[in-house]
Design a protein that fits this description.
Number of helices: 16
Structural class: mainly alpha
Shape: globular
Distance between the termini: 20 Å
Largest sheet: none
Order of helices and strands: HHHHHHHHHHHHHHHH
């Protein structure tokens, strides 16, 4: 095959701009919700568990449905699934904006998660199909990932401005115009890919995948929040047992929901592990910082959003620098160096104080996100590069499952660690004689303690607020220390497990290093083998 035939042209690069829209949107949605938490808490009055579920339900449902949606895209068409998901996401966003209770918002966030599960694997698998040259694909993924960071930059600014003038629900309405643009542009600029030989969707496997993921995630969340308990342990055991049944079924099916043989590829498995653990550290720290900036440092939502811009720019730089370094340097070493930088940043967060610590916290996060960028880009590239074209949807969904599950676990685990430290430290400072509900609320979360402190006479209110801020900061420090240890572990794993992966400049323009016997015959956009070529070209 002529190498030039594998290289993307102008149409593919323009199409990449359309594929960036869902990425931009999801970044906007995540960051503005962090800023909206204080207003949301005051309006809907969720308890600590409900507050975590408002954050977690979205990520958990994405993690649960990504495998199904990625494989569904292989069957019905990746562009078609992208458009269905975009329409559903826009409608669910409108419902979320007008939620009038914590329970309703949790439910609508779960619906957003199901819709969101269609977006990311569709975009990533289309990138995999449109950019077959290894160097171009790495650059395309770097741009795609950078759009997430652009959304992270714009999110705090747009969200902060909205929260200054409107109610917290306005941040969800950002999704509506973005999804409208995608629905108009996708049919014009994006090719369609599907694999008609993928077979029918196995609904039993869909159910088994959900019963595998959700109980395990819920059990981990409950263990992190309340410590060992019979019910969470049983839930995790059920999930693991069902997971074994799921894997066994996939091995026996002619057209499995999840291609288990992909995991035989060492690079694929190592990249997944790095994405999972890296997402765990970064997801929880982002949530804790948003609360620190507003409830400890006392910033308005807009000013807090401005303080988030530096570390978003840092990850943008890390994401764009990674493809350039990986051309000449082994990707494992690039990722390891980035994780070492992130470990330094997490260590700085461990030193932040409740007074005057905002600058140190931002510096720490700048290093964290700068170091995490290469792992996010190169890890994603290695995962989708390990799969043949007709399995791109499945590989993309596995990649996104790993990342989303990691972020959701990070919010649950590090958020719960912070909450546990907070409760332990603030309990002695709660004034004696408060009404039962007020005392419990003050010990529940910093947001609740702030409300209680405003209702107390001086100096009791000021003393409670100072103690609560110090207690929250201790939890923030602890989460930073745990994340630093995980980042060091990831640096070692990256250098050892990915040391044999060649730089992109030394790789042939091929379908990637797919495991043996997986997709030995490549298919084109209609699922038919491409004559005289190891891969099909998009039919525009």
């Amino acid at each position: 095959m002529d190498i030039n035939e594998s290289r993307a042209g102008r149409r593919e690069w323009v199409g990449l701009a359309v594929l960036a829209l869902p990425t931009l949107l999801l970044a906007l949605d995540l960051n503005v919700l962090y800023l909206a938490l204080p207003q949301l808490s005051a309006d809907l009055a969720p308890d600590a568990a409900q507050l975590l579920w408002i954050m977690d339900s979205y990520g958990f449902m994405i993690a649960g449905f990504l495998v199904t949606m990625g494989t569904l895209g292989d069957r019905i068409g990746r562009r078609r699934l992208l458009m269905i998901g975009a329409a559903a996401f826009g409608m669910a966003s409108i419902v979320a904006a007008y939620s009038n209770s914590a329970e309703m918002l949790i439910g609508t966030r779960a619906l957003l998660g199901v819709a969101g599960a269609t977006l990311m694997p569709s975009t990533l698998s289309l990138i995999s199909n449109m950019f077959r040259d290894p160097q171009q694909r790495t650059v395309a993924i770097g741009i795609w990932m950078s759009c997430f960071m652009i959304g992270s930059i714009l999110g705090p600014l747009i969200g902060g401005a909205l929260l200054e003038s409107f109610w917290w629900g306005s941040v969800f309405l950002l999704a509506v115009p973005v999804m409208a643009v995608l629905l108009i542009a996708a049919p014009v600029l994006l090719p369609e890919y599907r694999n008609p030989d993928a077979g029918r969707l196995d609904l039993v496997s869909v159910a088994l995948s959900l019963v595998t993921v959700l109980p395990v995630v819920w059990g981990l969340k409950e263990l992190a929040k309340d410590g060992p308990g019979v019910v969470p342990l049983l839930a995790m055991l059920v999930g693991l047992v069902v997971g074994a049944v799921f894997v066994r079924r996939q091995r026996r099916l002619a057209h499995p929901l999840l291609e288990i043989r992909l995991f035989a590829n060492r690079t694929f498995g190592a990249a997944l592990l790095i994405m999972l653990v890296g997402g765990t550290t970064i997801g929880g720290i982002a949530l804790l910082f948003a609360q620190y900036a507003q409830l400890v440092a006392g910033l308005t939502p807009l000013r807090a959003g401005l303080w988030m811009v530096p570390y978003a720019i840092a990850m943008l730089l890390g994401s764009m620098l990674a493809p350039l370094l990986a051309r000449r340097v082994t990707p494992g070493y690039v990722v390891a160096g980035g994780m070492a930088v992130a470990a330094v940043g997490y260590s700085l967060i461990g030193l932040v104080g409740s007074a005057g610590g905002l600058g140190l916290a931002v510096l720490g996060l700048v290093l964290v996100y700068l170091g995490f960028g290469p792992g996010a880009v190169l890890g994603t590239d290695l995962i989708i590069g390990a799969a043949p074209p007709q399995r791109a949807g499945s590989a993309s969904s596995i990649s996104e499952t790993s990342t989303e599950l990691g972020v959701a676990l990070g919010v649950a685990l590090l958020g719960s660690i912070g909450t546990a430290v907070y409760r332990s430290a603030v309990a002695p400072a709660v004034p004696v004689g408060l009404p039962g509900d007020a005392g419990e609320a003050a010990a529940e979360s910093l947001a609740s303690a702030t409300v209680v402190a405003e209702q107390l006479p001086e100096p009791a209110g000021a003393a409670l607020l100072e103690a609560a801020r110090a207690a929250f900061t201790s939890g923030f420090n602890t989460a930073g220390g745990v994340s630093a240890g995980l980042a060091v572990l990831l640096a070692v794993l990256s250098a050892s497990l990915l040391r044999r992966v060649r730089p992109t400049a030394q790789r042939p323009a091929s379908a990637g290093s797919s495991p043996p016997d997986i997709g030995r015959e490549a298919v084109g956009p209609t699922g038919r083998p491409s004559p005289g070529s190891p891969r099909g070209r998009p039919n525009h």
